[in-house]
Structure formats: C-alpha cells, structure tokens
C-alpha cells in the first residue's frame, strides 16, 4: 500500500497531527510520517514506536522496518 492516510494526534497530545505513507521496497518496510507541525519529543518517540508496530503487522515478512518522521 502506498496511499497517504491521516495521523490523528489525540493519543499523542497534539491535534491534527499529519499524514503517513507505507512503502515496501524489497525486504525493507518504511513508514513515512509528515506531521503538520513540529512534534514534542515524547510524541515523536511514541509515534515511532506505534509506527514500528504498524509495520510489523502490515508487512510481517519484511527483513527490516524503518519509521521516518519529517519536520
């Protein structure tokens, strides 16, 4: 899947968080998150942890998982 989806910030302590896109190239699953504004450090860490869990669920046979957060 490569469609863009919304990130909701309620659980991260931010509002209207941003968009995300999941990509798979060969053995690498990547989640790219583009927040609408800068995220507090705690929210960024939580987003990365949730992103890794999403990647492991969506692409269980990938060899590696990367979460990239912009801004």
Please explain how this structure is put together.
This protein has 71 residues and is of the alpha+beta class. Helices cover 25% and strands 37% of the residues. The protein contains 1 helix and 4 strands, in the order E-E-E-H-E. The chain has one helix at 41-58; strands spanning 4-7, 18-25, 28-35, 64-69. It has a 4-stranded mixed β-sheet with strand order 1-2-3-4, with helices on one face. Strand 2 and strand 3 (28-35) form a beta hairpin. The model has no long low-confidence stretch (mean pLDDT 82).
Radius of gyration: 12 Å
Summing up helix and strand content along with how strands pair, one would put the structural category as: alpha+beta
Q: What's the arrangement of strands in the largest beta sheet?
A: 1-2-3-4
Terminal Cα span: 23 Å
Q: How many distinct helices?
A: 1
Strand proportion:
35-45%
Order of helices and strands: EEEHE
* Mean pLDDT level: 82
Helix content range of the residues, please?
25-40%
Number of strands: 4
Shape estimate:
elongated
Largest sheet: 4 strands, mixed
Which consecutive residue ranges, at least 5 long each, have pLDDT under 50?
none
Please tag this protein with its features.
71 residues; alpha+beta; 4-stranded mixed β-sheet; 4 strands
What topology does this entry show?
Blueprint: E1 4-7, E2 18-25, E3 28-35, H1 41-58, E4 64-69
Parallel strand pairs: 3-4
Antiparallel strand pairs: 1-2, 2-3
Quick synopsis:
By secondary structure, this protein is an alpha+beta fold. It has one helix and four strands, in the order βββαβ.
């Amino acid at each position: 899947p490569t469609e863009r989806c919304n990130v909701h910030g309620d659980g991260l302590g931010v509002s209207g968080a941003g968009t995300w896109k999941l990509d798979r190239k060969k053995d690498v699953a990547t989640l790219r998150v583009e927040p609408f504004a800068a995220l507090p450090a705690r929210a960024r860490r939580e987003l990365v942890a949730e992103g890794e869990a999403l990647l492991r669920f969506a692409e269980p046979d990938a060899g590696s998982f990367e979460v990239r957060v912009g801004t």
